[in-house]
Structure formats: structure tokens, C-alpha cells
Automatic annotation (TrEMBL):
Lineage top rank: taxon: Bacteria
Name of the protein this chain belongs to: Diguanylate cyclase (GGDEF)-like protein
Phylogenetic placement of the source organism: Bacteria, Bacillati, Bacillota, Clostridia, Eubacteriales
Residue ranges annotated for the EAL domain, each copy included: 23-277
Record's keyword terms, sorted: Coiled coil, Membrane, Transmembrane, Transmembrane helix
First-to-last residue of the parent protein present: 333 to 611 of 633
Keyword Transmembrane helix: yes
Length: 279
């Protein structure tokens, strides 16, 4: 037996071990997070850019773990996807959001869109459409009020299958939004193929809207082109008035971002709707 380290191949160094341990720990805690009541939802308002009228809310998940603290969805959603826990969690998210939305609608009598992020893993689940139908029936939310946000990652799987699923949802009256445009392999040619109603321009794109050279900025022409396809545009991550003014000028339909509203917890959501509906 050769002495340790002589050949220089160590499969697991300390750093890797820590990583693997953290990942296992995260996974274990995540799987118990729903029954332990550690997950909750926040809702970020979206407004029409010209009138500042409320368009709707994007549902965003939060996890406050007693052991791990606040964990970002950017960290735990991929774990939920790998373990398929996302199917269970996704249903919980939809159900919780719809129930909340219906309650608020009954209380404040408003019309708006409830937008929910859907993972590629969920779309591939054979019972997905049935699950959505079930939740809408159970909660009494009208399909016209629901929007699902998907990302281009869903097309890693069968494009044909996914388009079939999206068409079924669209036929029910559900709005389809393509999220994160401007990251990854965003391609305008997708837009013609997909049954989508709304395009969400990602924050990385919006971040590039700064003071200089705006007349040559690419977001303007993209908005015009998308409009020609009868698709509406939501800009995401709008933080300052340079971005807002530019987007208004370029006829971007809706604005989501800290400049007009951060994600809201239940209390703040109630307050906002009270304000908006009490004239
Ligand atoms: P996303 O779907 O692109 O969501 C938008 C993210 O941008 C949210 O981060 C939101 O809080 C943040 N944001 C919005 N406006 C601004 C702004 O003006 N400035 C800055 N700095 N940030 C802004 P969040 O909540 O941390 O979510 C991160 C990602 O995690 C989401 O990106 C989405 O991919 C995923 N995610 C969150 N909730 C869910 C969920 O319920 N289901 C699924 N499948 N994924 C989710
Ligand atoms: Ca989203
Ligand atoms: Ca996005
Ligand atoms: Ca994003």
C-alpha cells in the first residue's frame, strides 16, 4: 500500500467534503420545510408603465430555516428540482398563492394577475395540467387571473411536448409568460414558435440601461419587435428613473422592480390593496 498523498490524487479534499455535507444538509432540511412551516410566499407588484395601474403580482418563495437561516431560492430551487421535490413544493406554492389571491379578491374586489413561477421539471410531470385545474377549482381563482412564468430551460426537453402543455393551459385561459429574457440562450426566434402572451425582460438587461448611448440601446428595438408578435412586455428589476423613463418611452407595457415595489409579505400586501381600492 502506497503512502497517502504520494500519487497526489485525493478524491475529496476538505472543501469538497464541506460542500457535499452542506448540500446534503440543505436537501434534508428542504424536504422537511413544508411540514415544518418554514416556507412562505411574498408577492411583488407589477404596474402598467404609463398609468401605474396595478397589473398583478409575481409570487416569490422564501425559506426561513431555523438551522440554516434565510436561504435564497436561487440556492434551493435547483436542489428542489434535482430531487423532484419541486413537484410537491410547486403545488404547495400554487395552492397557497391562489388561496391568498382569492381571499384578497373577495375582500378588496380587484382584478389583477397572479403570476407563479413554474420549473421545467414541473411542466414535464404528466399530471401537471390536471394539478393546475384542480387547484383553480379548489380555490375558485379564475384561469384568466393566473399567469405562469416559464424559462427557456424547459426546451431542453421535448419542445413539441412542452408546446402541447402550454397550449392546453392557454386554452383554459391561463396567461403564459416567458421569464428571464436576456440571460442564457435567449433567442427571438423562440418567440414565434411559442404560445406565449408576455415576455419578461431580465434584470441583467435592464441593468444595462444607463445614462449614455440610450438611443442605440437594444431593449427598445426588442420591445417593438415583441409587440409586433402580439406579445406584451414586462421589465423586471427596474430600480431607477433612467431605466423607467427609457422603458416608458419605448412603450414597455409593465414595470416590476424596486422603483415601484419590493416583494411584499401578507401584511404589506393587504395594506397595498387597501390603499389601491379605497380610492
Ligand atoms: P425570477 O423569477 O427572475 O424573480 C425575480 C427576482 O428578482 C426575485 O428574486 C426578485 O425579488 C428580484 N427582483 C425584482 N425586482 C428587483 C429589483 O428591482 N432589484 C433587485 N436587485 N432584485 C429584484 P428572488 O425572490 O430572490 O428569486 C430568485 C429566483 O428564484 C427567481 O428569479 C426564480 O427563478 C426563483 N424563484 C423564486 N420563487 C420561486 C418559486 O415560487 N418557484 C420557482 N420555481 N422558482 C422561484
Ligand atoms: Ca419569475
Ligand atoms: Ca425573471
Ligand atoms: Ca431571474
Amino acid at each position: 500500500v502506497k503512502e497517502d498523498g504520494k500519487n497526489g490524487v485525493q478524491f475529496f479534499n476538505k472543501e469538497m467534503k464541506d460542500k457535499i455535507y452542506m448540500r446534503m444538509e440543505l436537501e434534508k432540511r428542504l424536504l422537511a420545510s413544508i411540514e415544518n412551516n418554514e416556507l412562505y410566499l411574498v408577492y411583488q407588484p407589477q404596474y402598467c408603465s404609463d398609468t401605474k395601474q396595478l397589473r398583478g403580482f409575481e409570487t416569490l418563495i422564501r425559506w426561513n430555516s431555523p438551522e440554516l437561516g434565510f436561504v435564497s431560492p436561487v440556492q434551493f430551487i435547483p436542489v428542489a428540482e434535482e430531487t423532484k421535490f419541486i413537484n410537491y413544493m410547486g403545488k404547495w406554492i400554487l395552492k397557497t398563492a391562489c388561496a391568498k389571491f382569492k381571499k384578497l379578491q373577495d375582500k378588496y374586489n380587484f382584478n389583477a394577475i397572479l403570476s407563479v413561477n413554474i420549473s421545467a421539471v414541473q411542466i414535464m410531470e404528466p399530471s401537471f395540467v390536471q394539478m393546475i385545474k384542480g387547484v383553480l377549482e379548489e380555490t375558485g381563482v379564475h384561469p384568466y387571473n393566473l399567469e405562469i412564468e416559464i424559462t427557456e430551460s424547459i426546451f431542453i426537453s421535448s419542445m413539441e411536448y412542452v408546446i402541447g402543455v402550454l397550449n392546453e393551459l392557454k386554452d383554459m385561459g391561463i396567461n403564459i409568460a416567458l421569464d428571464d429574457f436576456g440571460t442564457g440562450y435567449s433567442s427571438l426566434s423562440y418567440l414565434q414558435l411559442l404560445p406565449i402572451d408576455t415576455l419578461k425582460i431580465d434584470k441583467v438587461f435592464i441593468d444595462s440601461i444607463v445614462g449614455k448611448g440610450l438611443e442605440k440601446h437594444i431593449v427598445g428595438p426588442i420591445i417593438s419587435l415583441v409587440h409586433q408578435l402580439d406579445i406584451s412586455v414586462v421589465a423586471e428589476g427596474v430600480e431607477n428613473s433612467i431605466q423607467l423613463d427609457y422603458l416608458k418611452e419605448q412603450r414597455c407595457d409593465c414595470i416590476q422592480g424596486y422603483i415601484w415595489g419590493k416583494p411584499l409579505n401578507d401584511d404589506d400586501l393587504n395594506k397595498l390593496l387597501f390603499q389601491l381600492t379605497s380610492g
